[in-house]
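Hi! If you just cloned this repository, the fastest way to understand the data is to look at a raw example. We've pasted two of them here, unedited. The first protein comes first, obviously.
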Amino acid sequence: MQTGRLSRRALVSGATVLGVATTTRRAGAAPLAIRVGWATMPGHLIPVLFANPPQQGLRHYGKSYTVRPILFRGSSPQLTAMAGDELDFFASAASTLALGVTNAHLDLQVVSDIIQDGVPAWHSDTWLVKKAGPIRKIEDLKGKRIATNAIGSASDTAMRALLLEHGLRDRRNYVTIQASFTAMPSLLEKGEVDCAIILMPELAEMLKTGKYRALFDARDIFGASETVFLAARASYLRRNSAAVADFMEDWVRSRRWFMTPENHAAAIGIIARFMHLPESELEYVFTHQDYYRDPWSRPNIAGVQTPIDIAHEIGVLKEAITVAPAHADLTFLDEAKKRITEPS
């Protein structure tokens, strides 16, 4: 696996029916180099899923495919890279998927779960304000500055939708300031913004100080949603179906390895080394303080559709799409589960 050298703070920031794979590889052909976009760790997990193939039980890495994770600020910049053929898979938000289909005219497909927000008893993205400040309710954000990671991202769409529900429109009633997730705690502390989404583990640390209060979270507008999912172009999936089938099998195997309680210490160790953080700061990962991840990587398709419909209703999206069946291909997951549970 290849990835650039990143600072500690930068690292935290933020189809086809498969019954038998139809694409065959030439004998001796080089492994398919798969470029995968990501935006946050440890949420997306993408940079570490293929970090230690033998330990994580991967069967095909280095044989039929390799992975190059590429860091972005959010899902919107990844969509631009997809349109420019600079990525093969990306960590997409619901609104980004819709924009990719309607504006960029890409044949995008939802292929796997990454993280789900607002699942009962699990974590939801949370926006903080200073406890000593004047902001007590959402309406108090009128005239204020709110940090967002990338226009059109999952968290950005949730924030805009919820504020609009309370009568507040961007550029008319409040100002958004784009920043990396890792910069937001400092911006909020210094008073350069009045409200910001704060990711774990900073969220827990900041709430413990008693200086901040949670104003709202994403579940307030979307309920349980598929916040970020893996997406790719249907044409790419068809063209490389054999290697993609191997990649998706290993993707599911690795995610399951990380989520297995018996592997918790080893999994946290891998993540901590990648992020250059002490393991103690990451003990919450894969617990109920963290996002929900489906054990078989099955995305919540209804949880993709709801944010799209809401974004369209409030004018964030000019045009909505119906995700299933045209823009969801779960056959690779079906094949992966079959390979894992019914090995030949």
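Ok, and the second one:
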Amino acid sequence: MADPASSVLLSRRLEHGIHQLVLNRPDKMNVLNAELWQALYLAFETLSADESVRCILLRGAGIQAFCAGGDISEFQDLRATPAQARDYAALMYRTLAALKDCPHPMVAQISGNCIGGGVELAMLCDIRIAGQSSRFGIPINRLGFVMSYPELDGLISVVGRSAAMEILLEGKIFDAEEALRIGLISRLVNDAEIEVEAMAAANRIAAGAPLVNRWHKKFARRLADPKPLSEDELAEGFACFETEDYHRGVTAFVSKIKPQFEGN
């Protein structure tokens, strides 16, 4: 797990199996540098292997930004040539893959600017809740570099090719209403309510059967692959019926009480 005292990433275990990861560079609008990419990778590798986790809440420190993109101050030293850029991209790709492959439900709590790499991170979360004053965009054509294949995949999978091309080709910064219209965010709330609503969403997720939540993530990810489902994959859709949580849930429903799922 990332060091809780890290200057770039704070990891907090909250109640009910909810973990909060905070991009902690508020003085830099939480931009992604090499250290933060690495810290995110390590955090997600650890959390993904922890079956006690029920939800991960990802946010930026402060209210100015969820994440305002990549740290451009590093580019001239760490991404000055194609060879350097490939080395840097290897770290980015590894981190993005760790987010994409995370089996646990993930909620992005978006306040302020969500730009460039911030959009990439948010797109890999299952639910994206944004405040009214948040702003979005990927204006990298103003800087002369591209969003490469693995990065672009997350954006297109969420908003579709047409909206992705509009975002990238125009390079404009747009408001939260537009982000909601094109599906970039899942939910829009008043700025004062963003923290409460994001935590409420995390609590609703955590109250569900954790194995079922993980299965739903796995199934949705698999359906993005056009390859026909195997018999074993189809059979996995019925594995829930042999879990203890299935019996707990049905018994609780019949008894008109709240189920207490244990993840088995």
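That's it. A detail worth noticing about the second one: The radius of gyration is 19 Å.
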